[in-house]
Amino acid sequence: MLVSWEPPLDNGGSPITGYWLEKREVGGVYWGRVNRAPVTKPAVKGLEFNVLRLIEGVEYQFKVMAINAAGVGPPSEPSDPALAADPIFAPGAPSCPDVKDKTKNSVSLAWKKPEKDGGSPIKGYLVEMQEEGSSEWKNVNEPDKLFPTCECVVPNLQELKKYRFRVKAVNSAGESEPSLATGEIPVKEIQEEPDISIDLKAQDYLNCRAGSQIKISAIIRGRPVPKTSWEFDGVAQKELKDQIHNIPVDSQVETTDTTSVIIIPACKREHSGKYSITAKNKAGQKTVNVRVNVLDAPGPPKDLKVSDVTRSTAKLTWKAPDNDGGDRIRNYIIEKKTVEGKSWGKVATDCAGTSFTVPDLIDGQEYFFRVTAENRFGTGPPIATIQRTRARDPIHPPEPPTRLKVGLVTKNSVALSWKPPKNDGGAPVTHYIIERLVWDPSGEGKETWKQCNKRDVEETKFHC
């Protein structure tokens, strides 16, 4: 700190040979000598001394005493308190502001701080604007309301009018020179086509387990703020929500200016399908599709039929379920139970095809059968036979009777006898049908066979 003073008016009758300088902290009691030897040579600008080893931020007072041949004279009055600190200046100018955003009545600006702060921290910034056709610069903010950071929004501008902007930095020493001014900036809404981002690991495909939550989150961008709507294409029952979203009844949509989320708390297989989100604004529109596959146990097989029944086996055939649960059918489970039985017994648990021959049936016993499909998510509901199936060998029509003989013949009757067929077709013969050949005596009609018996003939003879 440089301390200067004037020589005394009275030199005491002897030339002044030097000066002693003392200092103390403001509020202190004791004075300490500053110079080790008397100050004897005046500087170019007068008597002065550069005081070193001061503590930054502390206020000091100084006093000086003159020396002549008679000794040291009385001290001067203490100086005004002086703060030990580096000198400060007004800061350098900030960079030319850049336009970061615009609306129909505001402009957002950003700039870089000055390279030099003038030795004192920047308190804030003043922004000035100049209207189109005017040479006057007006304050956007007042000196007592400085912008604390290197950005601001200039509000209340006239739509489609042009403005220029510049910035000043302020520290303890005052305001900087203004920055370079921007070019003329028209105030109007920035238009950007909508953009939709969906955070899915599998891009546009989502797999989820039945009973879990479906949540599709979309980030929306665009200027002006786009309006969004969801659409569902699938078998679940739909309804129009908020008059814009055509989505499943048990779903909900949460929307902000920048996000839209569709949520189904507990999904079912029927919620599988295509979910589409559309964002629209003045600049255009965009649609993004997400395919959702809800994974579950399969539905029941179809068209279960029983064929080729024998006394110990029965062949089952069926068709794959309409609903595979969203995953490949791994196998089918085959079960049987007797008509009187209460529980089902497993016949096979690893049938890979859509047919199976059930073994180990008991001859004459009646059975029900059922088939269940299984995938990696579990087993679905079964399909069961409704008709009883009796375990027995297949029955075919019997062979013709043998050794037919004609016995007593009268003018209006004849006695017949025969032997049973050699092969009864797998079941006892229950009765016989007797027919006679009739022809037209005139020769005009055709020969025809007509049944003789009106009741079942259980014996191997008949009189007609």
Describe the structure.
The protein is mainly β and 464 residues long. The chain folds into 5 domains: 2-83, Sandwich (Immunoglobulin-like); 98-186, Immunoglobulin-like; 193-295, Sandwich (Immunoglobulin-like), CATH 2.60.40; 302-390, Immunoglobulins (Immunoglobulin-like); 402-463, Immunoglobulin-like (Sandwich), CATH 2.60.40.10. Helices cover 0% and strands 45% of the residues. The chain has no helices and 39 strands. It has strands spanning 2-5, 18-25, 32-33, 47-50, 59-68, 71-72, 82-83, 98-102, 107-110, 124-131, 138-139, 151-154, 162-171, 174-175, 185-186, 192-198, 205-209, 214-223, 227-234, 238-241, 245-248, 252-255, 259-264, 273-281, 284-295, 302-307, 314-319, 331-338, 345-351, 355-358, 366-375, 378-379, 383-384, 389-390, 402-409, 414-419, 435-438, 448-451, 461-463. Strands 28, 29, 31, 32, 33 and 34 form a 6-stranded antiparallel beta sheet that branches. Strands 2, 3, 5, 6 and 7 form a 5-stranded antiparallel beta sheet that branches. Strands 10, 11, 13, 14 and 15 form a 5-stranded antiparallel beta sheet that branches. The termini are far apart. The model has no long low-confidence stretch (mean pLDDT 91).
